[in-house]
Specification:
Elements: H1 6-18, H2 27-36, E1 47-51, H3 59-65, E2 70-74, H4 78-90
Parallel strand pairs: 1-2
C-alpha cells in the first residue's frame, strides 16, 4: 500500500521542518501519524484535499500512499505553496 521512497519523503519533510513549515521533532513519527489518516478509508479515494497543507503533512504522505488519487495540497502562503510544488516534483508526484 505504501509506495513512497521513505528516504526521499523524509528528506523533503526535513527540509519543510528546517524552513519552519512543520513543527520541531523527529520526522518518522510525523509520517506515521500522517499515515493514520489513510486508515479512515478502506479504499483509495479518487481525490483528496489537504487544506492548509503547510509543509506537506499529511498531504505528501497521502499522495505517496495513494498514487491513483488526485490530490490537492493547498496553502495560502505563496512560499509554502512554492515549496509544496518543488516537493511534489522531487517525489515524482507532480502532474
Amino acid at each position: 500500500m505504501i509506495s513512497e521512497p521513505a528516504a526521499d519523503l523524509e528528506a523533503v519533510l526535513s527540509e519543510a521542518r528546517d524552513l519552519g513549515f512543520l513543527g520541531p521533532g523527529s520526522i518518522p513519527p510525523q509520517i506515521l501519524h500522517a499515515r493514520g489518516f489513510a486508515s479512515a478509508t478502506t479504499r483509495t479515494p479518487e481525490s483528496f484535499l489537504d487544506l492548509g497543507s503547510g509543509g506537506g503533512l499529511p498531504g505528501l504522505v497521502l499522495a505517496a500512499m495513494w498514487p491513483g488519487a488526485t490530490g490537492v495540497l493547498l496553502d495560502t502562503m505563496r512560499r509554502r505553496a512554492d515549496f509544496l510544488e518543488r516537493a511534489c516534483a522531487t517525489l515524482g508526484l507532480a502532474d
